[in-house]
Amino acid sequence: MLRSGFDQQLDKLKEDILALGSMVQEALLESMEYLKARDIAASKKLIKRDRIIDDKRYAIESDALAMIAMQQPMAGDMRMIAATLFIVNELERIGDYAKSLGRVNVRIGDEPLMKHLIDLPRMAEQAEAMLGRALHAFVTGDINLAHQVIREDSIVDDLYDQVYAELMTLIMQDVSKIRQANLLLMGAHNLERAADRCTNICERVIYSVTGKLIDAGWEEDLA
Prior knowledge:
This protein is mostly helical and about 220 residues long. The protein has one domain (about 5-220): Up-down Bundle (Methane Monooxygenase Hydroxylase, Chain G, domain 1). About 85% of the residues lie in helices and about 0% in strands. It has helices spanning about 5-35, 40-70, 75-110, 120-140, 145-175, 180-210, 215-220. The chain is elongated and about 65 Å long. The N and C termini lie far apart (about 45 Å).
């Protein structure tokens, strides 16, 4: 195949990654909105829609593997395709975290929330924003942006610590709230892990451009 045709396939892979990423970003924000609104029916629909994210991931993966088998790309092209295979897996996992947050809402059921949600929505918004910038860094090859996103992970970690401390305080005041507190903490953990997946994506962005794998934990220590 001529180089122009191969480049078109690479561009399509990037477009598909962005489409999948958009679906995941939407799921993250919606899962939190449904929890805040106590919209259990909407959460159940979101949980079912996760299958669409899964199917999209496998379709992109299939296309990427076909390119490797048929085109035998070298050097930077191969790194980009390898990064694609890694990133679609990370996106599917972030989608799973959004689904899990939907399940938290369903499991809480009709029980009133034990506290007004402040830091959890902030975690969701930060993780969603990090994901958008991580994907932009991937399609543009912007390693400076990738490093910036990695450093932002500490924001989500700090919010998680705040959620944990507040929920533990509320439990000590009223042990009857322990079940819901555990569920909300599960939601916070999922959002913290979603942000971690964004840093993983950025690691692969840097690898696809430079050929060097970095440790995101080391980047966070520099923040």
